[in-house]
């Protein structure tokens, strides 16, 4: 009798949850289509002003949608081995970086043969490295260790009305402005150098060095996965499989659309999409994908419109960007598209979940972590996507040089993260 009562209670609870979910979908789906209409109008307006910005908006929207549908995070690549002894995302990051590195260099070769590639502009892209670069990497790692996210994660969660991450984004922008001022004074005193492998060693040696660095990276990931468990991929339904099914055309199109725009993506498949998006972005921009620096630029633009004299605090090039129209800033428009895509998918699903600031410790994490992450981003000229994933993919030595310093910052953040209520596990090569 008691088992029957428990079963009925479970069935009733399940039915109530389904009703709540259906109610959410009825409310949120119309909002999703309104947001999509806004995105389309914004795209047409952008296209009339700057064609590259319009292309970047589409790329950003696709990027945000993929990140919203996949549980992959860039930050977890370096953070999780230190904080949790988890190598799932480090393993995926390795695969994604290899694919993107091959794709980007294939684009370079193709565009060079076509005579459309500007080597002079490309040589300026690798990050200038200075004393402050390494110090900023430690500060960035410290901030990420406390906050748990960087550029892409902050934008995605803020776009989903997480009030604590909206606070973190504000602190990130303030911190990055502070970072610009520090960078100017420190690099002025100590100078900085640009490290770009083909420029230093020539292509054959650069490819060989990159290969050995990837081997070392793989050994680290393999060793960690062997000790603490590797990533296991689950079987998922693909669009191709749906297309092959013998079902009515209308039903087939509906299921394919659901699979493309609504259903979740396994992280293992998500990295393939992100790699393709990154390669396409490089093809049009001749620069690597990034969210941290464009988010900071967007923040400076907003501050400028609100009457803050940011241009006098920034360097010449940044100040010139702030004065330009938003449509004329392709990277900023890409970030706007990313935010729209990251909000559109959960609204379409009906699982858009706004949240509050949380307890006092969570607010401290958001304020301190957001500020320090912003400071570090400006000293590194990028975050996890631009300065680790992107830099390595374009054969820049800075992407490899920055990793141990970020990890050092993460180690320093562990006790504070634990004190503020974060869950961590000891970092060691042995067993549990």
Query: What's the overall average pLDDT, rounded?
Result: 81
Instruction: Note the run of SSEs as H and E.
Output: HHHHHEHHHEHHHHHHHHHHHH
Give a count of the beta strands, DSSP E runs of length 2 or more: 2
Helix content: over 70%
Spatial strand order of the main sheet? 1-2
Tally of alpha and pi helices = 20
Structural class label: mainly alpha
Largest sheet: 2 strands, antiparallel
Number of domains as seen in the coordinates: 1
Q: Rg to the nearest angstrom?
A: 23 Å
Q: Which stretches of 5+ consecutive residues score pLDDT under 50?
A: 424-432
Distance between the termini: 43 Å
Beta-strand fraction estimate:
under 5%
Describe the secondary structure blueprint for this structure.
Layout: H1 2-49, H2 51-69, H3 76-84, H4 88-114, H5 119-123, E1 128-130, H6 131-147, H7 151-159, H8 163-190, E2 192-194, H9 197-201, H10 203-228, H11 239-244, H12 249-261, H13 267-285, H14 292-305, H15 316-323, H16 330-349, H17 360-380, H18 384-393, H19 397-401, H20 403-419
Antiparallel strand pairs: 1-2
Overall description:
The protein is an all-alpha fold and 432 residues long. It has one domain (25-419). 75% of the residues lie in helices and 1% in strands. Helix 3 (76-84) runs antiparallel to helix 4, helix 6 (131-147) packs antiparallel against helix 17 (360-380) and helix 7 (151-159) runs antiparallel to helix 8. Mean pLDDT is 81; it is low at 424-432.
